[in-house]
Write a structure and sequence with these properties.
11 strands; four-stranded antiparallel beta sheet; alpha/beta; globular
Length: about 350
């Protein structure tokens, strides 16, 4: 029992060290210049496992859902820090009776050591996406599971070809999970991150802006923040990231990620053309683009915002005789103009008309 208490005490101290270091790195950034206020909290998954029926997980999910506007117009965004994927904190999101949940989520991960619980979450979400995955680190069987459940996957190579392709996948996500180890070791030199390849730091920050542009964002989970082993042995700095210099780099990247998300939230323009379309008429800021395919005699309807440049496309729901608007990119429209049916359109058409 004494040993367990000692381990728990060390874990608590580690969490405090990492949280303090990230908060200190945040304090050096110009958050006062953007209309958003980050709320940072440590999620101890090992402690959550001791709670009954995921009680602590329910509390974390509840606090994420209760993000609200602070005085002065600042939007509070909840950031949860964690060493590992916060499995127990997410039990409250999954439907108890099985089937699909009503929430939407996205994960930024190389796929390496992504736990089964994370794959299950992506499969059971109403809409999900996995971004930055490296094929040689993520089993193809798991890709098929996520795709079969309606989740989209954007591999690292595809993202690097055109990073704007990440935006439609994040646009409606409520819960975002970012594995800091998806960044290559040179840019995130944590001792637990031994991957020579991965996202560049600036790419993660661009993705962070897209996260902030989500119209439904409730909480962001940053995991892969290494528990400080040095503190357990009584040697070193106890920061959890290795040397002092490496620790500062890792904490700075986490802080800059938080800043970019906050900046995205502060400058976001919420647009819901589907709701406005059902009300009878789209505002003038939206523009219809109808692409006809002469050979098939069919057409695809696109909608674009003249303010933000966002794109959507209509997917026919055959049985209901209606259409569903799906976030897409300008590349989908360009492909259609060239006479090719976009893969995203085919993916959702097949999935929604099963």
């Amino acid at each position: 029992m004494a040993q367990k208490r000692n381990i728990s005490k060390i874990a608590s101290k580690n969490a405090e060290n990492i949280t303090n270091q990230v908060e200190m790195a945040c304090s050096r950034l110009c958050f006062q210049e953007i209309d958003a206020k980050p709320v940072i909290s440590w999620v101890d998954d090992s402690c959550a496992k001791k709670s009954t029926n995921g009680a602590r997980g329910a509390r974390s999910a509840k606090s994420a859902r209760s993000a609200k506007t602070a005085k002065g117009g600042e939007r509070e965004i909840t950031f949860f820090l964690s060493s590992d994927f916060p499995t127990n904190q997410l039990l409250a999101l999954l439907p108890k009776g099985g089937g699909k949940g009503r929430f939407s989520c996205a994960a930024i991960s190389s796929g390496e050591e992504l736990p089964e619980a994370a794959v299950e979450l992506l499969c059971k979400a109403g809409r999900s996406a996995l971004i930055g995955v490296q094929r040689y680190l993520f089993p193809f069987a798991n890709e098929l599971r996520i795709n079969s459940a309606g989740g989209q996957i954007l591999r690292l190579g595809e993202l690097r070809d055109d990073i704007t392709e990440a935006e439609p996948l994040l646009r409606e996500a409520e819960y975002i999970f970012v594995d800091m180890r998806s960044v290559r070791h040179a840019d995130y030199p944590s001792s637990s991150n031994t991957n020579p390849n991965g996202l560049f730091a600036n790419e993660l920050c661009q993705i962070a802006h897209y996260i902030g542009f989500s119209t439904n964002l409730k909480a962001v989970y940053l995991f892969g923040l290494e528990a400080p082993q040095a503190a357990a042995t009584g040697t070193g700095t106890g920061t959890g990231f290795g040397t002092d210099a490496a620790a500062q780099v890792c904490a700075n990247l986490a802080a800059q990620l938080i800043w970019h998300i906050s900046d995205g939230v502060a400058n976001n323009v919420k647009e819901e053309p589907a709701l406005q379309k059902r009300s009878g008429k789209l505002p003038i800021k939206f523009e219809y683009r109808i692409v006809e395919f002469a050979s098939q005699g069919d057409s695809i309807t696109f909608i674009t915002s003249l303010i933000t440049g966002r794109w959507w496309m209509e997917i026919p729901l055959v049985k209901k005789g209606t259409n569903k608007l799906i976030p897409c990119s300008k590349n989908d429209y360009s492909l259609a103009c060239q006479g090719d049916i976009p893969l995203r359109w085919l993916f959702f058409y097949n999935h929604l008309n099963k």
